[in-house]
Write a structure and sequence with these properties.
Oligomer: single chain
Radius of gyration: 23 Å
Structural class: mainly alpha
Shape: elongated
Distance between the termini: 56 Å
């Protein structure tokens, strides 16, 4: 019985998500044409709902590539990756990798990295709340002890690195400010929600390695060494300033 039920579910889901599939034989109606029509209406409603989820989650990707490219890709994604839960809060998590697999050209990786940033914003929005430390918490640490301290970062924090100017492009699409003329190379992003709104920060040189080391439990000294090893132009003062001003630290150990 369980096997028959599972087969029925798979058969119906396959037909529901793929317009090329005929309605399963177990669908009852006064005629096969009515069964096809009924399934078609339901199929369109489901597809429209899932397309809306993807279009809302990946608004910048849609703007960059246009509907002629985005909508067919989104439909293919829905067929390849149907929802596994009735809760669609995390639906689309495989979309960046799905985009990367659509071609080997750099443009696919560029769009996929933008999608990663947008996905990280969604994760930050739904992450657990935590109270960030204020500036006073840092000023009370003795200067000779600061380098040995480690930091616990806010649960909403995501770090991304790309060989494309993903932060500048995303900000240009969402703030109305033109992409800076110098924004042509690699950029790294800090995405977080220390309070009510999700924030996207462009990391300075070596900032990704610096924050990633802190997130993994390293001390300030460890993080500074990682940042300096990752970028010749690493500036510890600049990175510490962003660490504090972004309000992403919730504990000092």
């Amino acid at each position: 019985m369980r096997s028959d039920h599972a087969t029925t579910q798979v058969s119906f889901t396959t037909a529901l998500l793929d317009p090329a599939e005929p309605p399963p034989r177990f669908l009852t109606a006064t005629s096969r044409s009515r069964a096809r029509c009924g399934l078609g209406v339901y199929r369109n409603n489901v597809a429209a709902g899932l397309l809306n989820v993807l279009a809302t989650r990946f608004t910048t990707v849609r703007q960059i590539v246009g509907d002629d490219s985005f909508l067919p890709a989104a439909r293919d994604f829905i067929i390849a990756h149907p929802p596994r839960s009735a809760v669609l809060m995390t639906y689309g998590s495989e979309f960046p990798d799905f985009v990367r697999r659509r071609g080997s050209a750099a443009c696919f990786r560029y769009v996929a990295d933008i999608a990663e940033l947008e996905l990280a914003r969604g994760h930050a929005y739904h992450a657990a709340d935590a109270d960030p430390l204020n500036n006073d918490a840092f000023s009370t640490i003795p200067s000779d002890k600061f380098a040995t301290k480690s930091m616990r970062l806010h649960p909403s924090v995501s770090l991304l690195t790309s060989r494309f100017p993903i932060v500048s492009v995303w900000q240009a699409h969402h703030t109305g400010v033109d992409k800076p003329a110098h924004a042509r190379g690699a950029e790294a992003a800090l995405i977080s929600r220390p309070f009510l709104d999700v924030e996207v920060h462009l990391l300075p040189d070596g900032g990704y390695a610096f924050l990633e080391t802190l997130r993994n439990g390293g001390t300030i000294t460890d993080a500074a060494n990682a940042g300096a090893g990752a970028a010749e132009a690493f500036d510890l003062t600049l990175n510490l300033s962003l660490l504090i001003s972004s309000r992403i630290v919730i504990a000092i150990r």
